[in-house]
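Q: What would this chain look like folded?
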Amino acid sequence: GEIEELVALHTQWASKGVRVLSVSVDEDVGALKRFLEHSPLPYPVIADVEGMRSSADRFGGSGIPVTYVVAPDGRGVVRLDGSADILGAVHQTLARHPVPAT
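A: My prediction, written as structure tokens:
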């Protein structure tokens, strides 16, 4: 599923400066907190308390899940709707926009 792919992405690329951030649009913030207590994730998860309106308005999302891969230069953005090859999209994005050397 998407969570497993995001964890793998975080594990594989965090040392190279790639960051994963999840935005939950669930209206029940308590349920999100309970989920994270039971199944902690290695990357940040934030609650969008305004729901899909603010996320969709800001990023053009229309369904769940929506995944955005943003290149290190901030210009190359890939949008994935629904279940998709997240790792493949990251590899393609980084091939076109490499992570700067640290």
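The mean pLDDT is 79.
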